[in-house]
Amino acid sequence: MTALLPNFFAGRWQTGTDAGTPLFDPVLGTELARVSSSGIDLAEGFAFAREQGGAALRAMRYGQRAAMLSQIVEVLQANRDAYYEIATANSGTVAKDSGVDIDGAIFTLGYYAKQGAALGDATLLLDGERIRMAKDPAFQTQHIQVPTHGVALFINAFNFPSWGLWEKAAPALLSGVPVIIKPATATAWLTQRMVKDVVDAGVLPVGALSVICGSSAGLMDQLQAFDVVSFTGSAETGRIIRSHRAVTELSVRCNIEADSLNSALLSPDATADSEAFKLLVAEVAREMTVKSGQKCTAIRRIFVPRALYQATAQAIGARLAKTSVGNPRNESVRMGALVSQEQKASVLAGLAQLKTEATVLYDGNAAPLVDADASSACVAPVLLGTESPMSAQVLHAVEVFGPVSTLMPYDSINEAYTMIRRGEGSLVCSVYSEDPTFTAQASVALASSHGRVHAVSPDVATLHSGHGNVMPMSLHGGPGRAGGGEELGGLRALNFYHRRSAVQGSALALDQLAAQGAKLPL
User: Fold this and answer.
1) What is the pLDDT of residues 345-372, one digit of tens each?
2) Where in the numbering of this chain does the Aldehyde dehydrogenase domain appear (predicted)?
3) Is 257 an annotated catalytic residue?
């Protein structure tokens, strides 16, 4: 039996009291480690984070907390090779895909370190300008934001054990709010190791960063009125979190990122020879294969003019055929495994659902795996399609969290918009066009149902960040079934960890506030 990974909780390392849950290599099937939170005093850990970690963080200025983020970056960079090895073993990802998670996290931390440094010696944030409340300007009001006196609980998904931690922790720690991270069990090793390295380096005050692996049972019960909770995962679990008394009775602030049937849209005037067509084909194939399609932002539905349906299917299939699938340790492999046997079963079950309304246009599973066999968690890319998308139901309702996407033709742009909106709210839609007027019109049409519209045109072909890449300066989140949450977006992310208050009083008192505050450059 492998060793239990220790939890850092209540300011000390603690190991669960039972045998724990094993973590496996999804390609080789070998047991890597075990995790458990059994027997740990949750109330003690939450109280310690609030009282010790929170007080120590709030005693610092924004610039000082930003400097700590820079130190975390240095710690993570020094241990980067170890993180890549863990990602290969526990997540089954090729090096390029591991980089999306690991280097993406380091980049995000560095971004918030720079943004926070610009806030300098401020101890509070000024929200907007002063407003006169009487004829005499001596009486005015100023909105301010101050860090909440609580803890930030992060319940994270399995697909980004590194980025998922730090994209949330960076703005929380910069805000002065202590973090308790509960990673998804299947891939908890990388999260736990990163926290261990930061704790061992002594970068943060004790209690500012905690990690607890294993069961999430009881965590929500520990939340109090000024705490916040952020969840990434399934819509079903999101509903459970939203219905908890901490949210419904104590009004604990809650951010949820859930299912998302993201779309890619090719403009009506595109042709099979146009650059917009080629850009869409390349991006769809990339999004289907990066991290084996296990991204909340991956392209799930592709909408093209009906005249280009067959050409698009052939072009995407040709690109996917070049993707070798198997053991990520083999340098010839371009796509690794799903993270677990459970995830493989879920993908195959979802694929069977989609096939009730779609036909297979390309199936990479016909090709042999590289240095892996059928008992592994490898699933090759599958492109589905239907020529009757308006009458489909399942295709607009079921997300398969793997290397699966469905091609659909449209007969008018309004029909395309209608079908895209049937996803009931998504994280991102990408638009491919050579006409800036169409791109602007499409962006407005799609903005109300998407957290982000990613517009790709020939002039940004080598510059754009990618449909599925979440950048810290842009909003991450989406309405409706995507969870209704918001993360990142530059310093907007700090709003979740602050409380806004209107101070009404003498202009002289407000002058004192202004001397302590920094204006948010939004």
Assistant:
1) 999 999 999 999 999 999 999 999 999 9
2) 16-456
3) yes
